[in-house]
Amino acid sequence: MSSNKRFYLSGTVFSIIIFFGIILYLTKDNKEIPTISTPKIESDSSIDLNEFGFKSDSLNRKRYSIKKGETLSNILQRYKLNQNTVNKIIAKAKEVFDLEKIQYKNYYYTFTGKNDSTRLYYLVYEKNPDNYVVISLKDSISVYTWKKKVRTRLKTAAGIIQSSLYKTITDDNINPELAIRLADIYAWQIDFFKIQRGDYFKVLYNEEYVDNKPIGIKNILGANFNHNNENYFAIGFKENNRFNFYDQNGKSLRKAFLKAPLKYSRISSRFTNRRYHPILNRYLPHRGVDYAAPLGTPIHSVGDGIITGKGFNKFNGNFIKIRHNNIYSTEYLHLSGFAKNIRKGKKVLQGQIIGYVGSTGLATGPHLDFRFFKNNYPINPLNVKSPPTKSVNNKLMDTFVEIKDRIITQLDSIHITNKVENLNKVSAG
Questions:
Q1: pTM, whole model, 2 decimals?
Q2: Would you give the DSSP letter of residue 38?
Q3: φ, ψ dihedrals at 375, nearest 5°
Q4: CA 353 to CA 58: how far, in whole Å?
Q5: How confident is the model at residue 36 (pLDDT cuts 50, 70, 90)?
Q6: FRET pair for 11, CA 20 to 30 Å: which of 28, 56, 276, 412?
């Protein structure tokens, strides 16, 4: 073989070796950016794999919940990311959301390659059912928020009280949030400690859904609560960009005072001129209402006012006094502690948390001793009545009447069969 031919053959072989060497180098498994092949999709299909703003048909997805004490650093380090990279991710994320404040039991999703489950391409943290933070590591580090599409459905609910509003709603598999919303709406008309068997309610409301799963109540459009055979209507109406509730005559349901300073407790002692004191062992007047509730239960101011007293004494324990106007004032006794920034001379708003249930002073257990004064004279808090604070503007009354008529018609169409009549017969018997 001539020297030219040998040279030509050697050059060809060398070129082939170089070519395959480059191919082998480019296809070598790289921990930072591995080759992605089509994986077997996870059986959990509750989440659309394209809903977070990236293409994921060739990635494996898994869902986890945040463990107690777990941090973003803990999670990322499982995927062979060095601390420098983790720090960069955390710094980048803070521009959008501080992921070092991830919440215990919230969900997060990982998207990895099929051939290398330690190669993380995306991590998605669920702030709430419709808001997410997406960390992308596919090409370079990027972090953005993603919001799922929320759909609203018009719903109705009805129930007959047998023991409490909350139990009636949960026993009927209705969203328990509805009980809280109704209690807030009717806080000025109905004392929910005094509702009785046979009372009933009807509600028209909007509920929000994500992926066909309910995530919460958007708003209540209207309701009717029948208490002691009297209808209490709540008509939702927007005025001056504020959504409030009014009765069928257009008068606001918001009154000067809440019916009670606590939610979901029970009355353990009522207003009386002669009550046996369990510690002093003698009969004394009890010029307030005792609400038994778990230690630490939030206490709300029943109306707007100014704090005129805050302190401690051996009889009342921790206490707060509030002057609401020139006529009315209230006191809250035996508190375990005070809410933040509560001090004498400070203005408080109706419904604002002012303290927490305790058993300080002369008390046998955790409760709130709530007292009401008119012209500095103690009166029974359960008998206090006050007029509505405002009505629908006359210029908008025609619009209100149109909406009211439509809502009441819809409420009337909600049937509870004859359970109320039957229940009343049982009660009477």
A1: 0.63
A2: P
A3: 55, 40
A4: 51
A5: very low
A6: 28
